[in-house]
Each structure stands twice: as C-alpha cells, then as structure tokens.
Amino acid sequence: MERTNEERFEQLFNQITEIAEGNFEFRYKPSARLDHIDTVGTHLNMLSEEIAYFNFESYANFLIRPAPVVLIFDSKGRLTNFSSCFWEILGYTPPPQGIEVSIDSFLTEYSIPLLTEELNSLTQELNPRIFPLDFNTADKRIFRSNCSLSLLIQEHRYALLIYEDFKHKNLKEFSGSQKTQRQSVRTRSARNWVLLKNLRMYSLRNLNKPLPSLKEIGLLHHTNATKIKAEFKKAFGMTIHQFHLQQRLKQAALLLQTTDLMVKEISKKCGFGSEAHFSRCFKKQYNQTPISYREC
Questions:
Q1: 174/177 Cα distance (integer angstroms)
Q2: Domain boundaries, the chain
Q3: Which helix (H) or strand (E) holds 269?
Q4: What is the CATH superfamily name and number for domain 247-295?
Q5: Tens-digit pLDDT profile for residues 66-82
Q6: Is residue 232 within 8 Å of residue 199, measured between CB atoms?
Q7: How far apart are CA 178 and CA 268, in angstroms?
Q8: Chain segment 228-275, per-residue pLDDT in tens
Q9: In CATH, what class is 66-163?
Q10: What is the value of pTM for the model shown?
Q11: CATH C-level class of 1-62
C-alpha cells in the first residue's frame, strides 16, 4: 500500500530525530513517486552514511552486542528458529506457532539479492565476513545492521547473525578484535560512499552516449553488477541507467531552450541513436515532444 505524504513526512521527521540522537542506522525508504520528499529522504540516507563513518566520537558510545540476534532458515528461506528479540527490534508481533515466515519478507528489495550473493559464495571458513543488510521495520522504515552468515552442515540450515548496535552509557573498552571489526565495517561503508560518488560522476561524464551493461560498469569500477544495482538505487532511488537517461534528457531540455540546434543534432549530442527514440523518451519524461517543449 502506497504511503500518504503525511506518513512520508512523519518518517522523515523520525529519521531526523534518530540522527539528532546519534542513531545513524535507520534509512528512509523511497517511494515509487521519486518526488521532492524522496529527494530529501535520499539526502538524509546519504548524510547518515557519511556521519556514521566520519563521526568517530559517536562510535565510542556504541558496542556490538556480545550475543547477536540469530535467524535460522532453510534452503528455501523459511525461518525455522530465531531469537525472540528479533521481532521487538523491528517492531513486529511474533507470528503464531506453525505459521511459515520467509526471511525475504523482512529484507528490503535491495538486500534480497545481496543475501543471495552471500549464500552463493558461502564457505565453511571459521571467521565469516561481515556484510550489511537492510531490514523493513513495522513502521515502514529501514533498519541497517551488520550481519554474518554461517552454514549448519548437520541440519542443512543457514544461520544469519545480526549484530544490532546499541547505545551504552557505561561502555567498557573494546577488545582489539572488536575494534578491528568495527573499523573494518566503517571502511566498507566509506568504500561504498566513494563508489557511489564515482558512479555518479561516471554517468555525468558520459551523457553523450548510452551506458554499457552493469557487468561492464562493474569491471570499470572493480565491483559487481549486483552491488552497483543495489547501492545506487538505495542512494538515488533509481538505477544507474535510469539516472543516466534522466540526466541526458535534462541536458537535451536545456539545449532546446537555450540553443537553435536542430532536434536531430540535440538527440545525437545526448547519445540517442535516432531522433525518433529521443522524441519518445523526451515525451515520456516531459509529457510533450521536443518541438512542443521548445515552443513553450
């Protein structure tokens, strides 16, 4: 069900409150409208990412819970066992006994392929790697947490360990291994931020031609297609190809208003293979043809 503007503003207000209180784990979930409210939400999400990495003093007030929240699920993603506090953290009522629940139902659409990728690359190593996942809360927000995955060989099950962050006034010093782990998580967050900025600049520097496939973009930026698709859409509310098309059309609109170039020339400058294709895309974006737009 689509959220009302009032609900979306309420979520923005709640996230600002969380940031003010030093909690940078919640994320605003963009709607399908991609309007000015979603723009503010996207900037808040990016702000949370930046503060979480650069505000080192705030990290001194957080600790990783010694006993992580545990979810046990089978090869089809069905939860077979779980920590009871999992429901409390996300604000849900525990399901009645005997009711099947899928782990995917709690993950955002961008985190589902990330978990799938981790499952496909899972090994029996003693120190599984930490990776972030976004969970949907009951009040339609997003809670980001660091997780690790283990294979329970004898039971043919998987164990997802969720390391929830808690404020703690009387915090003891981290052990060396905990500090190293936290620093590692911050480093990955910073790398994601740098990757997003590089992808955005790459798009803006290539407005004169279509972008290659996600796989090729991944090779250029030393990452994979799944990560680009998930992280870019999470940050900007659209895929990198949608963003690139939007910027090309904005450039075309500016050229139509400020130059005497023919429509055919503008379509070529903005990387469209034909004037007809350019006109179709332009009309879909601006609800009028390039010629009509120029005459306005």
A1: 8
A2: 1-62, 66-163, 247-295
A3: helix 263-269
A4: Homeodomain-like (1.10.10.60)
A5: 467 889 999 899 998 88
A6: yes
A7: 55
A8: 998 898 888 899 999 999 999 988 988 888 888 899 999 999 999 999
A9: alpha beta
A10: 0.42
A11: mainly alpha
Contact 81, 101 (CB under 8 A): no
Residue 275 is encoded by which pair of tokens?
């004037």
**146/186 Cα distance (integer angstroms):** 11
Q: Specify the DSSP class assigned to residue 84.
A: T
- Residues 254 and 236: their CA atoms lie apart, in Å, by 22
Counted residue by residue, the chain has a size of 296
**Which of 175, 46, 68 has the alpha carbon at shortest distance from 130?**
68
- Cα–Cα distances (Å) from 95 to 68, 79, 86, 87, 101, in that order, read 21, 11, 12, 9, 8
Q: How many CB atoms lie within 10 A of CB 59?
A: 19
Distance CA 77, CA 287 (A): 43
Instruction: Find how far residue 138's CA is from the centre of its chain.
Output: 18
